[in-house]
Amino acid sequence: MRLAWLALLALAFAAVGCSGGTKAGGQNQPHAVVLTIANHEGDDHDLAEYVAAVSRLSHRSIRLVLRNHWHSGEADYDRRTLADVRAGTVDLGKIAVRSYDELGVEQLQALEAPFLVDSLGLEQKVLSSTLPDRMLPAISDLGVRGLAILPGELMRPFGLERRLLGPSDYRGAIIGITPSVVPRATFERLGASPRPYPPDELTPWRFTGAELDLYTLGEGSFAVFGHSSVTANVAFWPQAFTVVGSPQVLAKLTPQQRDVLRRAGRDALVPTIARMRADDRAEAGVLCRRDHIAFVNATPSQVAALGAAVRRVYTRLEQNPTSHSLIGEIRRMKRHLLVDPALRCPTAQPPTSTATVLDGTWEMTASRTEASEIDAGHYRMVLRRGRVSSTFSSHDSSGWHVAGVFNVRGDKIQFRYTDGGAAIYRWNLYRDTLTLRKIPGVAEAPNPTFAPWARVGR
Asked: Which of 21, 196, 228, 258 is the most buried if burial means most Cβ atoms within 10 Å?
């Protein structure tokens, strides 16, 4: 009798583990499925909202697992990722819209048309319309299925030592780009020489500037100099992405599950745009204060001249009937849309004069397995009403002490020290445990990320 009861109990637990709950009407949901998604980047920055939308719309019956750093370090990573999705090596893949014209698919080029989709508001309006549904089927020519188009940051003119305002500023310039047909043609029409580059080679003795978004510029390890600038009221195009799926994998899903993967792109649109707006404001502040990058505006005549200079790019794009129709529709959307305010350097903020949730005395001990020999030791950090005092001690060194100020902005904390050092980290607080995470390319001295911090006083 006892054995029979245990067997029934085991079956009950197995049923709970395999079922995703019930739908309206009492029918069981499909068994939960796990799908892998190839992601060239090292984090979920571009995909977080989409992954959450898939989970929400499927009532957790579909779980996406990111495979980060996919083909990292390879120039043709999107082409190779498409091949992996086509072969079923990975279930889904994140592919940049700009990669398709290099592969012979032109129907998505309307999103790359120069100076057309030049605001996050317009990008949201375009991607919430029927236009993505008319673009995505063309991807099937590559042997994969297009599921969604996700918004991306706006690519802006970044000048290393020359301000990129009107066409005359581009003549003879060498501009760093991510390889694609439309950007290459755009900069050639502006009189510049477009050239692909790895981040550590974007230097003024090799390049005049680049097309970059603020997030990449703020988070990356790019060389910036005293005369570097961002043209704040000009955007070339958005760096949008697609999610594609393996036909073999999608065929094994139910129609409802395939529909979730498609609808999730639209469901993720509003929160993604909101996050990118907040990121742009935050990164503008970081770039102004940390790197002293100037935010400059092109004059109305310079903006008009940029548009006139690339007319032949449009002539070429509109030879494709689909692109011609889509560009016309985007232009009509743009006429009835309020212009986003241009980004600018925020006015200087004084140190926080009131207590923050992070105020207190914190301690961390980094072992030799967590840190290098020179960094292993005991750390103490006091945060109090915008002031920071940090000390380090170990058996193998005389230690150090540094003081300065700090500001908390959303999930980021920025330090500025009296010795001229500066650092910014992402923070997470759970009860009295504080975790700080590095932001790639940002100065980090002293380094507080070896281990979690424990609050030992308030």
From this structure: 228
Q: Say what angle helices 269-291 and 48-57 make with each other, to 10 degrees.
A: 160
Nearest to 211 by CA among 175, 165, 170: 175
Spatial distance between the Cα atoms of 91 and 66, rounded to a whole number of angstroms: 10
Q: Any residues with CB less than 8 A from the CB of 81 and at least 6 apart, and which? A: 38, 40, 70, 71, 90, 93, 94, 95
The three-class DSSP label of residue 209 is strand
- pTM equals 0.71
Length, in residues, of the chain? 458
Sign of the C-alpha dihedral, residues 349, 352, 356, 359?
positive
Phi, psi (deg, nearest 5) at residue 19: -95, 145
DSSP 74: -
**Ordered per-residue pLDDT tens for the chain, 458 residues:** 333 333 333 333 333 333 333 333 334 444 689 999 999 988 888 999 999 999 999 999 999 999 999 998 787 899 999 999 999 999 999 999 999 999 999 999 999 999 999 999 999 999 999 999 999 999 999 999 999 999 999 999 999 889 999 999 999 999 999 889 999 999 999 999 999 987 667 777 789 999 999 988 877 656 666 678 999 999 999 999 999 999 999 999 999 999 999 999 999 999 999 889 888 888 888 788 777 889 999 999 999 999 999 999 999 999 999 999 999 999 999 998 877 777 888 655 444 457 888 998 899 888 777 666 667 788 888 898 888 888 888 776 667 777 778 888 888 888 877 655 667 888 989 888 998 887 765 544 456 777 889 998 87
DSSP secondary structure letter of residue 227: T
Bridge partner list, 406: 415
In degrees rounded to 5, what are phi and psi of residue 163? -75, 130
Q: Is the peptide bond before 446 cis (omega within 30 degrees of 0)?
A: yes
